[in-house]
């Protein structure tokens, strides 16, 4: 008697900051794993998965179709974030942030085999899709009113996914992640966010600047916990399909304290005094959301999946500074 074929999981964006950590976790499982990235992915050796590594430009329809051929589950981590603070979103941003998912859903609709279950698609969205937060603690029941181009694009893509799910094309799960930070132990890649930027300033002996008095709260999700949430979504896709879910630690960290911790950790490495953390006038492109406190209530996601964040913030910041 032959064993059933292992399920195929395709990770789109596998060479990225979060994608490489997701891919490393999935490599430990007895599955077929296809790691697809703009650049060649690095996957740790010795895992249980049968691994296929591909490079692809997923904005090219044929390359996207090949990337997901035969996949039972797809993790969509492809995003373009550059230029999102500008008054108008670039066509390139729209093409990547909305167009790739639209094409993916079209590919899956055309190949749909109604004799079996629809493929799972886990999509990485952002808690900022809500727009200006109506209150500090968000739980996913808020009305979405995104203000900046990037958030409007992410929301548009999410709505396409959920509509395809309602039509039976996919089992779609959207995870809205807060500020994810840290580095990939697989590739060494760092996040491109404010914490790494400020860590590099501190290591260079430059002051850390902030656009407020430091009391603004942020829910900061370490990359390891972000990746484990995505894997948990794959494991519980049927319980999650059809809506978006907020993922976060549930703890609001005052950014002034976070930046001072970064300054202290950088000073430990350089053997100098901590750089000052100072308030400055925000630039003209600042969004109101930058000045609002946000804490994520991920209770609904945790109840469905059993997922829990495990990273200690100070130790996660220490690792980030060390990698910067």
Automatic annotation (TrEMBL):
<feature type="domain" description="NAD-dependent epimerase/dehydratase">
    <location>
        <begin position="9"/>
        <end position="248"/>
    </location>
</feature>
<dbReference type="InterPro" id="IPR001509">
    <property type="entry name" value="Epimerase_deHydtase"/>
</dbReference>
<dbReference type="Pfam" id="PF01370">
    <property type="entry name" value="Epimerase"/>
</dbReference>
<dbReference type="InterPro" id="IPR036291">
    <property type="entry name" value="NAD(P)-bd_dom_sf"/>
</dbReference>
<feature type="region of interest" description="Disordered">
    <location>
        <begin position="119"/>
        <end position="144"/>
    </location>
</feature>
<dbReference type="InterPro" id="IPR050177">
    <property type="entry name" value="Lipid_A_modif_metabolic_enz"/>
</dbReference>
<protein>
    <submittedName>
        <fullName>NAD-dependent epimerase/dehydratase family protein</fullName>
    </submittedName>
</protein>
């Amino acid at each position: 008697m032959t064993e059933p074929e292992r399920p195929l999981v395709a990770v789109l964006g596998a060479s990225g900051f979060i994608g490489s950590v997701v891919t490393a976790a999935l490599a430990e499982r007895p599955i077929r794993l296809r790691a697809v990235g703009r650049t060649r992915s690095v996957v740790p050796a010795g895992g249980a998965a049968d691994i296929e590594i591909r490079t692809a430009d997923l904005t090219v329809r044929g390359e996207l179709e090949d990337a997901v051929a035969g996949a039972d589950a797809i993790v969509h981590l492809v995003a373009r974030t550059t230029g999102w603070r500008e008054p108008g979103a670039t066509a390139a941003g729209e093409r990547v942030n909305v167009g790739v998912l639209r094409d993916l859903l079209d590919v899956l609709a055309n190949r749909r085999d109604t004799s079996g279950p629809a493929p799972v698609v886990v999509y990485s969205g952002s808690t900022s899709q809500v727009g200006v937060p109506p209150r500090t603690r968000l739980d996913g029941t808020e009305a979405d009113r995104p203000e900046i181009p990037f958030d409007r694009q992410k929301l548009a893509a999410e709505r396409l996914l959920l509509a395809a799910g309602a039509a039976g094309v996919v089992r779609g799960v959207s995870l809205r992640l807060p500020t994810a930070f840290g580095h990939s132990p697989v590739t060494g890649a760092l996040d491109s966010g404010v914490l790494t930027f400020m860590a590099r300033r501190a290591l260079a002996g430059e002051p850390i600047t902030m656009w407020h008095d430091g009391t603004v709260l942020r829910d900061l999700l370490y990359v390891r916990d972000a990746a484990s949430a995505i894997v948990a979504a794959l494991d519980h896709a049927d319980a999650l399909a059809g809506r978006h879910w907020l993922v976060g630690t549930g703890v609001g960290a005052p950014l002034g304290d976070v930046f001072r911790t970064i300054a202290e950790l950088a000073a430990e490495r350089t053997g100098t005094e901590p750089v000052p953390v100072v308030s400055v006038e925000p630039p003209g492109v600042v969004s109101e959301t930058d000045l609002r406190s946000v804490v994520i209530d991920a209770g609904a996601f945790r109840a469905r999946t059993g997922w829990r964040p495990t990273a200690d913030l100070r130790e996660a910041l220490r690792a980030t500074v060390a990698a910067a």
